[in-house]
Amino acid sequence: MAPPLTSLLPDSPILADRASAWRSAYLHIPFCARVCPYCDFAVVAGQDDLIERYHQALLGEISMAESWSPLDAVFIGGGTPSRFPPELIGSIIEALREKFGFSENVEVSMEANPEDINTTTSRGYSEAGVTRLSMGVQSFDDEVLQALGRLHNGATARTAVEQAIAVLDRVSIDLIYGHPVETDSSWDTTLDIALTTEPDHISAYSLTVELGTPLSRAVAEGYPAPDDDVQADRWERAAERLSPRFTRYEVSNYAISEPCRYNLATWGQGEYVAFGMGAHGHRDGVRSRNLRRLDRYLEAVEAGRPPLAGQSVISGWDRELERLMLGLRRSAGVVAGEGGGQLLKSHPEFVEAGIVELREGRIVVVRPLLTDTVIREVLAVPEPE
Question: Which of 4, 40, 92, 270 has the fewest CB atoms within 10 Å distance of its CB?
């Protein structure tokens, strides 16, 4: 008999492998009060007058979908999903439930900005069916927040997290480190406050300069770019500070007992349906993407057409390499399989240098800061003859 989910640690290989069979759904809500300078997601600002129309389009797209398996995980991302009031979120969750069904232990995660969250809204989202709020705090330092283009301040963020935790059992704090304005001291303070609020999950990501964003244009004009060595130090500081209480189950994600199920499923190459502008899905070896422009997305759905922008079939050796690339991000690693055997054959130096280990048939990256280095090499691993 398989052990229950709650008895498994977040970095359990059993849990990681089981998650690959979970069925999930991703819903994209693109609306923002302001677009952050580092963001390259499919988002819009200043168009809240289209929220109700978009809500109806989401319901319409869900109704057009084929029937499938009951869902184990739902992730509502953005954009800023908390631009939607709880009643709209609730109707979307209910539409998914009616279309696909929910498993007994389904987790419904939703991203939210601190300025939108208080006791009342937290209770509203909980009653609507949200079981995990993922709070886009980014930092508790006001100067860093201003540099990141955020609308909230550190005090607002702390209050919002505390009020959310008073209502929901699962609250995640999302942090971004490595902005040139940030100091060692301010990062330590952010970690201190994050720990003090006692969330059950923390994500800590490095600031990246994405092509086409205001940040990338500023860097091109001479604004200081994030420093790789500083970011590595900040990652190590976070790992050191969080490890006594949290288990790191992916390069950037930490949980006390319950990892984000949608995250685990996607890193396990699990399948998921996707709805909304620019949303990406994965079914039956096919990866699909929706139209990224809001007007075109709305026009397609309102005309009764799936808003598909394109799709690609991932099969054979490409699928095996994708399985490795996704799974290597997890602390549990990935079953070596044929692709892993070829990786170690092509790059024995990874084992010799103590970057990866082979543990009971699994490849595990034991120096997480070099995960991307290993993954880049996976792309070139030759198919066995």
Answer: 4
pTM above 0.85, yes or no: yes
For position 5, what pLDDT does the model report? 65
Going by the DSSP 8-state scheme, the letter that residue 65 receives in this structure is: S
% residues pLDDT > 90 (the chain): 98
Q: Do the beta carbons of residue 249 and residue 220 sit within 8 Å?
A: no
Q: How far is the C-alpha of 296 from the C-alpha of 300, rounded, in Å?
A: 6
Q: 291-297 — which CB contacts under 8 Å span 24+ positions?
A: 292/42, 294/30, 294/44, 294/47, 294/50, 294/54, 297/57
For 250, left (φ over 0), alpha (ψ -120 to 50), or beta? beta
Give the single-character DSSP code of 178. -
Work out the burial of residue 212: count CB atoms within 10 Å of its CB; fewer than 13 is exposed, 13-18 middle, 19 or more buried: exposed
Q: Which two tokens stand for residue 351?
A: 């084992």
Strand (E) or helix (H) holding 251: none
- In tens, the pLDDT along 129-140 reads 999 999 999 999
At position 30, the amino acid (one-letter code) is: P
Structure letter (DSSP) for residue 19: H
Q: Determine contact, residues 237/187, Cβ cutoff 8 Å.
A: yes
Q: How far is CA 202 from the centre of its chain?
A: 11
CATH of domain 5-267: 3.30.750.200
Q: Which one-letter DSSP state was computed for residue 285?
A: T
Nearest to 154 by CA among 190, 195, 198: 190
Residues in the chain, pLDDT under 70: 1-6
Four-point Cα dihedral 108, 112, 118, 124, nearest 10: -40
By CB atoms closer than 10 A (0-12, 13-18, 19+), residue 41 is middle
Domain residue ranges in the chain: 5-267, 316-378
Please report, for residues 29, 115, 162, 208, 275, the alpha-carbon distance to residue 42 in angstroms, rounded to integers and kept in the order given. Answer: 9, 21, 29, 16, 13
